[in-house]
Amino acid sequence: MACARVPLDEQQVTEPGPLGKERTLPALHPERAEDRCFVPYKPPPEEASPAEVEEFLERAKFITEDLEWLLALPHDKFWCQVVFDESLQRCLDSYLHHAPRGLDLAALPSSPAVADTQRSVHKAVFLTFLRMATHKESKERFITPAVFGEIIYENFLFDIPKILDLCVLFGKGNSQLLHKMIENVFTQQPSYYSDLDETVPTVLQVFDTILDKCGLQCEGAAAMEPMKLNAHKQPTAMTMSQQDLADLIAYLCDSTTTIHAFLDIFPAACSSFYSHGFISRLTSFYETAVPDLEKAVRKRNFDHKSLQDDLWKRLSHSCRKMVEMTHLLLHHTCLQPILEGDETRTSYLLQGVESAWDSVGRRKPQIQSKTSSSLLSNQGAVGGATAAAASGGFKAPEVREPEGAEGAVCPVSGAELESLLSCIRDLLPDLGEGFLLACLQEYDYNSELVINNILEDRLAPNLDKLDRAMPRKGESAKELLNDKQHIEDQRARYQAYETVVDEVIIEPGDSSSAAYDLDDYDDEYDDTYDMNQVGANDLDGDTLLNRRPFTIPQVLRKGKVEEEEEGEEEDQFVQDPALLRERAEARRAAMQQRKGIRPERPSNVAGRPKGQGQTLETFLDRRKKEANKSRVSNHNRRTMADRKRNKGMIPS
């Protein structure tokens, strides 16, 4: 009998031998394994005939029964069977290789019997691997951790490809169990980390293989590697066969889904992938291969529309997994170390953000700048706080309730409060506005201190009890109606319109724009409008009918008139611009003559040919043009644009 509180690898058992005599053997011994044949797994048939369905059900039933028998064995017998039964390992490996993945499940037969049987096999395989990854089942049933790590490593019970398949097959719904299982395997046998480090280049080779099949190369690869002699004969995504394209996209989909599942379940592996430049290789592959594959799927003529839809779905799924892989790697290798750093680093980053705001002219809320400056002064900038944090003596500043807090109005305006909430939610989007409002009230509306304490998990006890997703329902309807702060904010804006000046006396040498801050924007326009007083001399009694004669609407006109106008419109669809200008000038002269306005002398800046002398009119016209040009120069336009930008009329 096995001794209690002794690890399995040190136990000795006494049992009858082949000839009936008792013998003593180690608890882990090949002769203690049962003679049982585990059949390999085959996936459900896609186009199922009754005979194929029956064969699958029978084989899956054998596998389920055998694995359930295995799981029911005692601790020592289970491990003897696992270590010394090769047919068991072939059965488990066959399931990892051939079990349908997420997107493959849709192609399975819709038979309820097939679905139920597949779920039973799936569950039995997962429970078997889960028990194989557990070195201690109870106080009496356990294996020495070092020996356990040697057993699973030397007997190939686990390896990196198997772990990758476990993640993609069982990750959905079992991520926490899988994380503990894989973490225990890596903890008890650190050699798996070195194996992972050696596996990453092989994973990267997947992307190179796909590029080679498409006749492509990553950016920079062409300069490093010589071109192959048959490179011009290499098929592309547009010229390869439909089956090759389908296999290539399925290979890409399976690879990206597997890698993402592994990194998502076991984030400790992100550092190994990151150290091999996985992000840069992945982005280069995405930019090089994805456009060609998308073009091939969209524009090629497929035998069946369902095949095109399936390929597009798998390619889109692959693109999404590549993006999510990049996010995982950046989060766990770049962002997570910053978030887990001390308070000095967080304050330093926030101070950098504030400096960036100041550099572009964005105004911080006054309450925030006041409290943040006092906080930074208390911390002693960067050096003093670093020393205090390293010595363990740094403490968050004590927050005291302001005097007369009960019934006091909010010290910040509504717009500033929304700005504070927006600032915090940009960094912590998962938190509810109700919870953030409570934090701001607790910490005197200091958004920097709120962010710092949330990241450091050092909130006040009364805030820790709140639901962090609490919506903004702390304000009653009465408080909202009584809040007239928005009226006060608008009062100063409209006070500028209270004074109406009928007559303004301008002293000699003063300009109206300088005296009354008139920001007229003089944009560039044609010289004609500088010299012709368009509309300036209109008579007060002029009516709309004098400016534009009455015309009969087209729908009320007679047929003959309509035909004449249609013919005229067809003949004059494209007219000479010079002719249009002459007609416009004639209409303008006729209107001025009808109103009694003296027509203004036309401008003549060209004058006579050089050497014949110029008239006084030409000299005056040239001087007037030069004066107008200087008034609307580029410098003046830029000045006016700056004034508008400073007043918030146009975005900066």
UniProtKB/TrEMBL annotation:
SMART domains, per the entry: CUE
Compositionally biased intervals (Acidic residues): 562-573
GO biological process, one term: regulation of DNA-templated transcription
Region (Disordered): 1-30, 559-578, 584-652
CDD domains found in the cross-reference section: CUE_ASCC2
Bilayer-spanning residue ranges: none
Basic and acidic residues: bias regions: 20-30, 619-629
GO molecular function: ubiquitin binding
Limits of the CUE domain: 416-459
Name assigned to this protein: CUE domain-containing protein
Organism: Amphiprion ocellaris
Gene: ASCC2
